[in-house]
Design a protein that fits this description.
Helix 1 runs parallel beside helix 13 and helix 12 packs across helix 13. The protein has 13 helices and nine strands. The protein has an eight-stranded parallel β-barrel, surrounded by eight helices. About 45% of the residues lie in helices and about 15% in strands. The protein starts with a strand and ends in a 15-residue tail after the last helix. It has a single domain, classed as Alpha-Beta Barrel (TIM Barrel). Helix 6 links the parallel strand 5 and strand 6. The protein is α/β, with parallel strands linked by helices.
Length: about 350
């Protein structure tokens, strides 16, 4: 099974956003060495706990620091942007790092609606724009816009024989249905929504229409997971994400608490109920138990690939979690990860 990583560049209490970005690059280099298949960067805006509002920039640094692993966005929030400009950015990355670039596309605001207004006041006026944006973007990437299309003569440069993989991301049936209709790859965000995903994945596969890009459906499930040497340590490390999700429900945006900070918090009965409810979208335990659960989810989704997102109260335990998972899945360790080759 292909195993990949999604990184939201968490800002852990006591660390700066710049340190969070550097931790992302360090983790990507480790993932390259450990045998993970791809490494995606998320887009979030104006959040005290997440450092990356522009994965399309950080992607270049990650790709340059690695040698083998595919690198991409999970994802670019397309409603904010010009499809042509996104195509140009990713065609440039494809020229620099051929056959290693993924363009994951999302349609969420990546923050509050006030933030969305500040980013682009017309971005979320109507959902009907999003399918058109996706089709234009793919058309620009592949130079396949129809002859009668208004922008047919516009070419996204630099042109080349290869093109980034294009994925639609979602936590509901909307993006799955659109990915099936357009013949694109699809990733379901189980770490956002723990319910209904297998049905969405089944519908995606059954409704998939082969396209210029993809002859067959390709589905991935993205799962939050924490691995530790024993279950007690894993549960202890989970305190930081438990508090983070409780704060999000309460509308409190903060840096990621350290494990000690999170464990020192006293929770009411209502808080504990929220934490327990949120645990449905997390896999926490020993490498053996986490692997077993990830394989169960793979089977439920009929997924071709599983992507893992891990956030803990310190960067060392986050890295160790990914190391343990790579060992448990016997991923092919390589000498990569010490800097990309000259191109």
């Amino acid at each position: 099974m292909r195993l990949s990583i999604l990184d939201q560049s968490p800002i852990i209490s006591g660390h700066t956003p710049a340190e969070a970005v550097r931790a992302t690059i360090g983790l990507a280099k480790a993932a390259d060495r450990l045998g993970y298949h791809r490494y995606w960067l998320a887009e979030h805006h104006a959040m005290k706990g997440l450092a990356d509002p522009c994965p399309e920039i950080l992607l270049g640094q990650v790709a340059a620091a690695t040698a083998r692993i595919r690198v991409g966005t999970g994802g670019v929030l397309l409603p904010y942007y010009s499809p042509l400009k996104v195509a140009e950015v990713f065609r440039m990355y494809e020229a620099l790092f051929p056959d290693r670039i993924d363009l994951g596309i999302g349609r969420a605001p990546g923050g509050t609606m006030l933030l969305a207004q500040a980013m682009n006041s017309g971005a979320f006026v109507g959902e009907e724009r999003f399918p058109t944006q996706v089709q234009e973007l793919v058309g620009f990437l592949d130079d396949t816009l129809p002859p009668d299309y208004p922008y047919h003569e516009v070419k996204a440069m630099p042109a080349g024989p290869t093109s980034p993989q294009v994925w639609l991301l979602g936590s509901s049936d909307y993006s799955g249905s659109l990915a099936a209709y357009l013949g694109l790859r699809f990733s379901f965000a189980h770490f956002i929504s723990a319910h209904g995903g297998p049905a969405v994945a089944r519908a995606y596969r059954s409704d998939f229409r082969p396209s210029y890009r993809e002859e067959r459906p390709y589905c991935m499930v993205a799962v939050f997971a924490i691995c530790a040497a024993d279950d007690a340590q894993a549960q202890r490390l989970a305190a930081s994400i438990d508090l983070r999700r409780l704060q999000m429900v309460r509308g409190q945006e903060q840096a990621i608490a350290t494990t000690e900070e999170a464990l020192s918090r006293e929770h009411s009965e209502a808080d504990r109920a929220i934490i327990q409810h949120e645990r449905a979208r997390a896999v926490i335990g020993t490498p053996t138990s986490v692997k077993r659960r990830l394989l169960e989810l793979q089977e439920q989704f009929h997924a071709d690939e599983v992507m893992v997102i891990t956030i803990t109260g310190d960067y060392a335990s986050r890295l160790r979690s990914y190391e343990l998972l790579a060992e448990e899945f016997a991923l092919p360790v390589s000498a990569a990860g010490e800097g990309g080759p000259d191109r």
